[in-house]
Specification:
It is built from 13 helices and 17 strands. The protein has about 525 residues and is α/β, with parallel strands linked by helices. The chain has two domains: about 260 residues, Rossmann fold, CATH 3.40.50; about 140 residues, Rossmann fold (3-Layer(aba) Sandwich), CATH 3.40.50. The protein has an eight-stranded mixed beta sheet, sandwiched between helices. α2 packs parallel to α3 and α12 packs across α13. It is globular, with a radius of gyration of 23 Å. The relative contact order is 0.12.
């Protein structure tokens, strides 16, 4: 069942409220309408118009999610009616997309929810009866995470409830200030364990310098710094004087600022100062940056640059590539290097693929790739074909039921599956030591042991948490955008330290340099 559009009575109520607001001169902001259009645990927000909150799958936030929500609802009902002890985990990502870029965001959300469901299904059906059973709820903080606080408070009440027994929140697919505030609030204020999914920003993490910045946060995806290091080990590239950095100057986006810092270090000594632009604050909008890129590319053409590092979001990257395809210096060839957000480009219908057929190569890092662990040169450590096959088998609708079109190439389903599975492993490892359903504090303590023999066998690679809760020497897939298949073509696996981890899968006392 989907959230229905508010009915006639609700529309009349909205009109009355609107007139009251205007009458007192407050024609801005938002109001929560206590109608039944959104379902239990979910509320209607008027700015923007969307349903936000927490559901067990009984109501869907978007038509594209209907099938997978129905499967989650059925699995949850089976768990709660079984009489067996269970713990609840929550996937927290935006799940409503009304704007022009909605097709891209909608597919990303679908794949992430699918990955989470596959982990839940595996936990309850293919885990040799390990306890507790896993119930999963879906938490939508709204467009851009704008209503994160009310959703986080709802999750906190579920964590305190003996009926829900929420023990971990996972997902968090985009590195924005709202995500950072959500994680800070959940971990430091509400003391709920959190597992980051597709997050890569360096500043939404615990570090050796600030080990308690987010108490109870762990991550399964390598940081931008680690991904850049892995990329450097995979491709030594050109002399630094033949590089140039094109960077977004905004400081209100964690992904951009983190990637910019990493790439500034990589291009130190370049012949040109970084070429800067400023994108709109809404990462899904076009703005006028295409005009900036035309001027920037003219400067690059007049320089010795052969490798272009791009620190920005996918919309601006697409604009930049399209302009690069129309460059005046067509005889010059360029390799554009960027971060993992660029995995969204194949879904962007405005990308001019001919650019990548005429002297331009786009290389990027990815959380994983379906070909990463299935080739003849797969390393003996750091991951396995078996772990990936476990996930791949779960995508069979004859096993897990219809969930909508599945695509593992983008890697979002893979990394969200690993995020959910890490949460489940933490809950179940701690259950062995005490209660069938451990407390939130006990789950946080379990993070300390998820390395070595107790590492998480992720579909994306081994997840060996260091003492700050970050994945040590995690595999990074290097991908090239292929204009023929219009997909990401797997190039190689690489590692932040330059080599796969040894069998102990434990961070050294002194970091490897």
């Amino acid at each position: 069942m989907r959230f229905r559009t508010p009915g006639r009575l609700v529309r009349r109520a909205l009109l009355v409220v609107f007139l009251l607001v205007v009458s007192v001169g407050l024609g801005y902001g938002y109001h929560v309408y206590d109608d039944n259009s959104c379902g239990t645990g979910v509320q209607w927000e008027s700015s923007p118009h969307e349903c936000v909150g927490v559901t067990d799958g009984g109501m869907s936030f978007d038509p594209a999610l209907d099938q997978v929500f129905a499967r989650i609802k059925a699995e949850n009902d089976r768990v709660t009616k079984s009489g067996a002890p269970y713990a609840t985990i929550a996937l927290m990502i935006p799940m409503y997309f009304p704007r022009l870029t909605a097709p891209v965001d909608r597919k990303h959300a679908l794949w992430e929810v699918q990955g989470a469901y596959f982990a839940q299904y595996r936990a309850n059906h293919n885990a040799n009866g390990r306890a507790p059973a896993i119930r999963m709820v879906l938490a939508n903080p709204g467009l851009g995470g704008g209503h994160w606080r009310s959703v986080a408070d709802r999750l906190a009440r579920m964590a305190a409830s003996p009926d829900h027994r929420l023990r971990a929140v996972f997902g968090f697919d985009i590195s924005l200030p709202t995500t950072q505030r959500s994680i800070d609030y959940l971990t430091n204020v509400k003391h709920i364990p959190v597992v980051g999914g597709a997050l890569t920003a360096d500043d939404i993490a615990n570090t050796p310098q600030h080990p308690h910045a987010y108490e109870g946060l762990v991550r399964v995806n390598p940081s931008n710094t680690d991904q850049a290091a892995a990329l450097a080990h995979a491709d030594h590239g050109v002399p630094v004087r033949q590089t140039v950095l094109v960077e977004d100057a905004r400081n209100d986006d964690n992904y951009i600022t983190s990637l910019r810092k990493v790439f500034e270090a990589r291009t130190e000594g370049a012949s040109l100062a970084p070429e800067q632009f400023r994108s709109p604050s809404d990462i899904t909008t076009e703005g006028t940056t295409s005009n900036d890129f035309r001027q920037i590319i003219a400067n690059i053409c007049a320089s010795p640059a052969k490798e272009i590092y791009f620190a920005g979001r996918p919309v601006q990257l697409r604009q930049f590539l399209n302009e690069l395809g129309n460059r005046g210096c067509r005889a010059h060839t360029y390799t554009v290097i960027t971060g993992p957000a660029a995995n969204a480009l194949p879904l962007d219908g405005a990308l001019e693929w001919d650019t990548l057929r005429h002297g331009v190569t786009l290389r990027l890092t990815a959380s994983s790739h379906p070909d990463a662990w299935t080739g003849p040169d797969t390393p003996a450590t750091g991951g396995s074909a078996e772990a990936f096959k476990t996930l791949n088998d779960l995508t069979n609708p004859q096993l897990t039921g219809p969930v909508g079109p599945v695509d593992l190439t983008d890697s979002r389903a893979i990394i969200t599956y690993d995020s959910a599975w890490t949460a489940i492993e933490g809950i179940r490892d701690e259950a062995v030591h005490g209660h069938t359903v451990p407390s939130a504090d006990e789950v946080r303590n379990a993070w300390l042991r998820l390395h070595g023999a107790h590492r998480v066998e992720g579909a994306s690679g081994w997840i060996c948490l260091d003492n700050q809760g970050n994945p040590y020497d995690k595999a990074v897939a290097v991908v090239r955008l292929d204009p023929t298949t219009r997909t990401g073509h797997f190039v190689t696996l690489s590692w932040p330290t330059g080599r796969p981890p040894n069998g102990s899968c434990t961070a050294p006392r002194t970091p490897v340099t």
